[in-house]
Amino acid sequence: MAFFNSLLFGIYSQTKQSLQGGVQTSCPQPQIIIPSAAYGGAIISFVLCPSELVKCRMQVQGTDSLVPKSSRYSSPLDCAVKTVKTEGVTGIFRGGFTTLLRESVGNSVFFTVYEYVRYHLHLKLQAESSQHRHLIDAGVGVVTGGLGGVAFWSAVLPLDVAKTIIQTSPDKSSTRNPFRVLNSIYRRAGLKGCYAGLGPTIVRAFPANAAAIVTWELAMKALGIRHG
Length: 228
Hints:
The chain is an all-alpha fold.
């Protein structure tokens, strides 16, 4: 996650700067934020998909009592190697399209919420004493990152549910179309089934993304990089 977040924030910042054409503005511009975030999400999906496939398969293998221990993966590397041997190189990228959709849409939502909430909070707090500036900035980072994370997962959790099913299905010939998977879930369990695991995901999303944003902004300050 450290690598993926570094890649995502780096691509987002550079793409945003390129689209701005060197013109710095504090007011959020959705025509710049959304394509920058979607592009960053699309790029990281290519490295995120294989790692998530391994993670998901390692997580669910112990839940199926019908799978003998001899057939279980002994390590993440063992899982990756066996996947490539049995399913080919494309097997390790199973669920890639769904991951790309999740990351592109999700990060567009995340960075839009982050940029707008950050902008309006700073407008309200700009008159505060400079001696409390660091605490105020950290507080803004917590709120913007946390709300952005909650918005991300609220928007794309169904795609994540579909991705997990696609990546962990024992039937390797089953559909890789996330919309067919979600349609099947909806007919069987309704909207609630498409949002399975929402509670734990939201509980994790707020502190995790708050920490990521606060760290990102502190790092930019320490490096003398201006937030555009």
